[in-house]
Amino acid sequence: MLCTVVKTGVDCFFMTKKGCEYNGGKCKTVIEQCEGCQKANDFPTGKYCIAFPDPAAKWRTGKCNMATHIKAPEKKEAVKVNPLKASKRGSR
Ligand code: SF4
């Protein structure tokens, strides 16, 4: 249902005909770590995350997994080596 509390017009899971059912009755504003994220949007009521009602909770246990301004560390692909074939190659 579309929010009519703080993120006006944003489709939200917590919005019901009785109003916002999120803890406290409305979303919490973004925090410092959200600066630069594309999901942090300005609304007439303040700056809110369009993905989460409580951005501080997303950052409490580490980096936000939905943040668009943080690059995930590159994973180095481990090259699998068959030890048997490697020993044959070495003996040639
Ligand atoms: S997606 Fe994460 S980093 Fe981006 S605004 Fe929302 S809580 Fe903040």
From TrEMBL:
Domain of life per record: Bacteria
InterPro entries per the record? PxxKW_fam (IPR047766)
Q: What is this protein called?
A: Uncharacterized protein
Taxonomically, what lineage is the organism? Answer: Bacteria, Pseudomonadati, Thermodesulfobacteriota, Desulfobacteria, Desulfobacterales
